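Protein modeling request. Please complete all fields; requests missing the sequence field cannot be processed.
Requester role: graduate student
Desired output: 3D structure, token encoding
Chains: 1
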Amino acid sequence: MQSEDEPLRDAVQARLADFTAAERKIAQVILAEYPYGGLVPIQDLARRAGISAPSITRFVAKLGCAGFHDFQRRLIGELKESRLSPVELKRGQAAAGEGNFLADYAARAAALVARVADCASLAQFDVLCDLLADPRTGLHMIGGRVTDSIAQLLTAHLCQIRGRVRHLPANPEQWPDVVLGLTRRDAVVIFDIRRYDPRLAVLAESAAARGAKVVSITDQWLSPVSLHARQTFALPVGVGTPWDSHLALVALVEAAIIRVSERDWPATSQRIAGIDRLRLALDPLRGPGVGLE
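Delivered output (293 residues):
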């Protein structure tokens, strides 16, 4: 039986191969707008999936739920958890012990990073790297209040590898001009973890409407951005503290940077050398190799 700690989305995806044809229809409807797709009355869900209400009852039973109301209770619980602040997360947690806190935290952080490969398949990772490496694709990066620093990290490195890469301005007043210029040749990579920024979901919806490929890099509860994304990375962020960890997101980004840079290392190294020469030409007082990172 599924643990209540496991998101229902993961349980559905893990059992797709074992579902009947009717159950796969239900799964597709729920996953398409998770978790909101499962928070409608059972009759509405049955109508949208084109199956009977009893089929839905059997479906949720396979997930370990004691009926449709229990299934929705679990979904609502996940929604509430996705909105918890550090203050709320701290409640019920024990105070830091007097042992070696740094060593303990490092062990928990290492375990978190190790889970990245379980949350993102090699095929999914390769699709992301193909997108980031394609010089024909215009790349646009942005994140939330804290995760925007990761978007800037990815932007800074990709700019050394290829052209047509930009970090979107933080001011939403400047987004319409960017969105109006988007085409099917563009991709928008959005970082957003819980206590999500609703403006990013609007940006994602607008970008998708222009035909741009939206990539959502988020947590296990899924930012609303994911509703409009062609590709979603749902990564772990909890390390048993009031503060969510960004380590899994950074690990994914750094792995992608390395993979993309090595797709055509001669071209990458040539571009970096060219950038370095221009930097030195623009600032003759800077010695070779100084401050080029």
